[in-house]
Each structure stands twice: as structure tokens, then as C-alpha cells.
Amino acid sequence: MAEHERRTVVVSGAGGRIGGYLRRADGGLAARGWRLHLLDAAAPADLGADEPFTQADISVEESTEVLAAAMAGADAVVHLAGIPSEDAWTRIRRTNIDGTYRVLEAARRTGVRRVVLASSNHAVGFYPTGEVARTDRPVRPDSYYGVSKAAMEALGSLYADRYGLEVVSLRIGLCADRPATTFDLGIWLSPGDAVRLVDAALRGPVDGPVVAYGISANTRAWWDLSTARALGYAPEDDAERLADEVEEYAGPDGVLGHTMVAQEPTP
């Protein structure tokens, strides 16, 4: 794709783990034809001189105007910014819920057509693991964090139906270099598949709000990838090849969002 044909995507939370995967020069979104504009509360430590960057804290109301300025002329937004695990309700609300509202509102104001939201399996974390996890069932969050992701999906649905934004919410599993436990063998999303998933979410056909699970082609998976595949997602990795290198899972059994259930948030 010629430089003048490259489309621009704003990536919030660009300094995080998944943001780092998307920024990779040898296999990230840029290699797939996207021009990235990075956004975070602080500049990534490895920020390159040729990487456009805007500093914005989405937890504060004033950030909406900064977000809108960063999105001006952009074709799409990938929203990764947020508190990544359980925390006090007030902090979760300000960053993950109010912050998502500000991102969507800025996208609406500036005419961005597509927004990809980083949701989580914790939005449905109290469903049992012994059945296929589908996208057409009501949310059952397992934590304040899970509630924030359920609210993210609801906000995305509202902005799709009310304002016509093309919104894709990705319920991401364990996105890391490698799985750590036997449980992770079912929910791992490899770095390469994370890029393939987000690229598909940015390009694939969207009719109304879309919710899709985000994992690799894992032998032990029980999540339904049909909506992700309908976007054009074709995972290439399987955690099973790393099965001999992981530890036996020793946490609570029976619920999808196992890592959150045992945590008690502070006030």
C-alpha cells in the first residue's frame, strides 16, 4: 500500500502490552498498511522519533478535547487505555467507563467511522467454563473491572445504534508472549494473533455493534470465535505447542473469569 493510501488509526493505551504488539515494526499494524497515532497518559519508554504521539489522561473530563484533536482526520480508533485489572470502584469508573465515553464521544465529534474497543472475558466471567462461551448471551461480570468492560460494550452499542459508528468490542483473553498455566492454554491470544484480530476488527464487515472473542486457535478453547472469523480473523497460533512449558493451574475452577473472582477490591 502506497504511503498516501495508508489509513490512520489512533491507538489509545499505546504504551501497554497489547499496544506494544500493535506497534511492532516487523509485524504490527503498520506492516499491514496502517499509519498509527499513539495516545497514552505518558509517552511509551521506547517511543520512536517517527511515531506521532499525544499525551492524554482519559480519566479526566478535560481529555475529551485532547482526544478529539488527536482523532481529527483519523479513519479508526483502537481503544486499549484503561485500568487492566480489579481496582477500587471510583478509579475503575473514572478511567474505564467515563474514559470510554470520552473516547467514543471524541470519535463521534470528529467523524471517525470505526472504533475497536478492548473488552474482556471478565464481562462474562461468571459463566461456567464447561460450556461454549457465546457472544449472544447477557453479560455476567465477575468484578468491578468486569462491570467496566460490560459498560464499555453497552456504550459501544449505544454509539453504534444512535450515531452510526462502526463499533467492535473484543473480549480479549490472556494476551501475552506465552501462556503461564494450563488454564491459559484455552484463553491465550498470541502477539501475532492479537495484531491479526485487531486488523480484522478494523477492516471487517460491521452491521450494528459487534462483540467478538479474542483468542488464538487453541486446541483447548471453548470460546466461540464465529463473530471474530466473520470479521476476517484467521488465527494462526495454538497454545498447545507450549503445553509442556506451563504450570498446572491451581486457582478456583468452574468460572470463566477465574483470576478476578478471588480478589476483593479496596473501597
Molecular structure report:
- This protein is α/β, with parallel strands linked by helices.
- The protein has a single domain, classed as NAD(P)-binding Rossmann-like Domain (Rossmann fold), CATH 3.40.50.720.
- Helices cover 31% and strands 16% of the residues.
- It has eight helices and nine strands.
- A seven-stranded parallel β-sheet has the order 3-2-1-4-5-6-9, with helices on both faces. The protein has a two-stranded parallel sheet with strand order 7-8.
- Strand 7 (174-175), helix 5 and strand 8 (188-189) form a beta-alpha-beta unit.
- Helix 2 (63-71) packs across helix 3 (89-110).
- It starts with 6 loop residues before the first strand and ends in a 6-residue tail after the last helix.
Strand and helix map with partners:
Layout: E1 7-12, H1 17-23, E2 34-40, E3 53-55, H2 63-71, E4 76-79, H3 89-110, E5 114-120, H4 144-163, E6 166-172, E7 174-175, H5 184-187, E8 188-189, H6 191-203, E9 210-214, H7 226-230, H8 258-261
Parallel strand pairs: 1-2, 1-4, 2-3, 4-5, 5-6, 6-9, 7-8
